[in-house]
């Protein structure tokens, strides 16, 4: 028994442990403009639909053109867990994790700022506009609380 008699379910504990592992891998990769990389895990491909990493990424990120994905691969914007650039012709391997840095052409500016209510070495309390995203996601990378 912990926390005054209450114990977290084991499934919840496992989920937290898995998240901590994922975070430790991502922390080894640098941030760009204050934003860490996103991760995609290559699914198993028993039918052999994808010959290489580029074929998968074109399918997975259908809103991007093949040329744009090739350019990102060429610039080293898509890496493995060690931060090594992935070649477009790299063979497709299921369960492999790739890390990529998102970019937005026109990120809308949110015209309000957060207010720090309290801060010490362990905690920060912030009053933020309700529409300001907490973390980079969707249409926002820089215009977030974090």
Tell me what the structure shows.
There is one protein chain. The protein is an alpha+beta fold. The protein is 24% helix and 13% strand. The chain is built from three helices and five strands. A three-stranded antiparallel β-sheet has the order 1-3-2, with no helix packed on it. A two-stranded antiparallel sheet has the order 4-5. Strand 4 (115-119) and strand 5 (124-127) form a beta hairpin. The protein is elongated, with a radius of gyration of 19 Å. The model is unreliable at 7-26 (pLDDT under 50).
User: End-to-end span in angstroms?
Assistant: 35 Å
Major sheet: 3 strands, antiparallel
Helix fraction, binned, reads: 10-25%
Shape: elongated
Poorly predicted segments: 7-26
Oligomeric state, counting identical vs distinct chains: single chain
The helix-and-strand class reads: alpha+beta
Mean residue pLDDT: 77
Using only C-alpha atoms, the radius of gyration works out to 19 Å
Number of helices: 3
């Amino acid at each position: 028994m912990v926390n005054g008699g209450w114990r977290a379910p084991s499934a919840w504990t496992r989920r937290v442990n898995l998240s901590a592992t994922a975070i430790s891998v991502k922390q080894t990769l640098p941030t760009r403009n204050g934003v860490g990389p996103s991760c995609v895990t290559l699914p198993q491909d028993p039918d052999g639909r994808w010959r290489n990493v580029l074929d998968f990424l074109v399918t997975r990120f259908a809103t991007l053109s093949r040329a744009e994905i090739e350019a990102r691969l060429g610039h080293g914007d898509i890496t493995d867990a060690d931060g090594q650039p992935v070649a477009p012709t790299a063979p497709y391997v299921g369960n492999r994790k790739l890390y990529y840095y998102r970019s937005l052409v026109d990120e809308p500016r949110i015209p309000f700022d957060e207010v720090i209510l309290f801060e010490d070495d362990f905690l920060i309390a912030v009053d933020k506009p309700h529409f300001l995203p907490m973390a980079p996601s969707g249409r926002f990378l820089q215009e977030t609380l974090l």
